From TrEMBL:
Belongs to the aldehyde dehydrogenase family. One of its GO terms (biological process) is L-valine catabolic process. It comes from Aspergillus terreus (strain NIH 2624 / FGSC A1156). This is Aldehyde dehydrogenase domain-containing protein. The lineage of its organism: Eukaryota, Fungi, Dikarya, Ascomycota, Pezizomycotina. GO terms for molecular function: methylmalonate-semialdehyde dehydrogenase (acylating, NAD) activity.
Length: 152
């Protein structure tokens, strides 16, 4: 199947305009396209790392506003791709795993004296519990994802 997702590494369209994807689930990329996305991201990382929390929050809130402004197109895309009803797809967009975590994370990080931890895997989750238990003078929030986290 020919599928041409928009790719804008470094702010400009990818030189490779089309590819064949055999599995829509894997979304695998040719190495040259992966490199075209990773190299600009690596260049941008030092500036992002130096950015304080307030500008980062503004960027993420802008992202959530863009999603909310385009919810109907995103829901239509989910309907076509996954076969969901439009109403169900709209719920995925407006209450899905993208918007709520961003809004909640920004809320938690803005609270003074709160230890907010968002672990990404089982090792980070186990470490987060240890850190939260040891933080006796600070309230702790551990925000885990909806994905299964296996603790060993």
């Amino acid at each position: 199947m020919n599928f041409c997702p928009p790719r804008l590494p470094n702010g400009s369209p990818s030189a490779i305009s089309q590819q064949t994807i055999l599995s829509r689930a894997s979304h695998s990329l040719p190495p040259e396209e992966l490199s075209a996305a990773v190299v600009p991201a690596k260049k941008a990382l030092p500036a992002w790392r130096a950015t304080t929390i307030a500008p980062r929050q503004q960027i993420l809130f802008r992202f959530t506003h863009l999603i909310k402004d385009s919810w109907d197109r995103l829901a239509a895309s989910i309907t076509l791709e996954q076969g969901k009803t439009f109403k169900d797809a709209r719920g995925d967009v407006l209450r899905g795993p993208t918007l709520q975590p961003i809004e909640l994370a920004n809320l938690f990080r803005a609270m003074p004296n709160i230890l907010y931890i968002r672990p990404g895997d089982s090792e980070e989750t186990a470490s987060a519990w240890i850190v939260a238990i040891q933080a006796k003078r600070t309230p702790s929030i551990i925000s885990t994802s909806r994905h299964t986290v296996f603790l060993k």
